[in-house]
Give the backbone structure.
Amino acid sequence: MNNDKKTLESCLKQLRLAGIRNYYQELTQVAEKETMPYKEYLLELFVRECEVRYNNRIARFLRESKLPLEKNFDNFNLKRLPPKLQHQVKALMDGSFVERTENVLAFGNPGSGKTHLLCALGLELVYKNRRVLYTTCSLLVQKLLVAKRELELEKTLKKLAHFDVTIIDDFGYVQQQREEMEVLFTFMNHRYEQASIMITSNLPFSKWETIFKDPMITAAAIDRLVHHSVILEMNIPSYRMQEAKKGKND
């Protein structure tokens, strides 16, 4: 009996069936006690294996996403948004826009909740088995610049291409130099119609020439982003200002 157990343990380890390996003894006792049918017993084991793999995968995706976990829909007040915007957000939550390689562009004043909203959407995507990366625009640009100087830009772009969605926060905050503008455009061009980009920005398209400097590059960047996109106009009162006023009134 011990030899059978060792052989089974060895097989489960080789096949990397950790969920079954950690659960089969407990389930076997229940099955023997309740005379559980073989089919039901096997189903229960494989369901557990799938659950363990899902949980491990989501935990890994969350770590690599760099998403701030506190920015989720549990503490985001959707009712603050106008009805049209609420409808757009609810439509995005199912994640189907990723399959269509659509972009999501959130524009609005500081404090309107753009970052919180896109991060919350990013978390929803992770739980739907999507690989998401959150980064600020400045951090992304610096990473690409380093890669370019080390002659590894193509390698870095391929690594970033593994993510289904890249969330770029504070797009336009940093005044780009020509070299910075070039790597940012290269990244956007590399993802065009291949994977989704989600962007927050305080700057409307009419002011994006301050980011890319060159009118032709600006037009090309906007064209690639808007071609397949959902635009969220978040011109609503600042959440932080409202909370500050509420605190004073209290």
Remarks:
- The chain has a mean pLDDT of 87.
- Residues 2-64 form one domain.
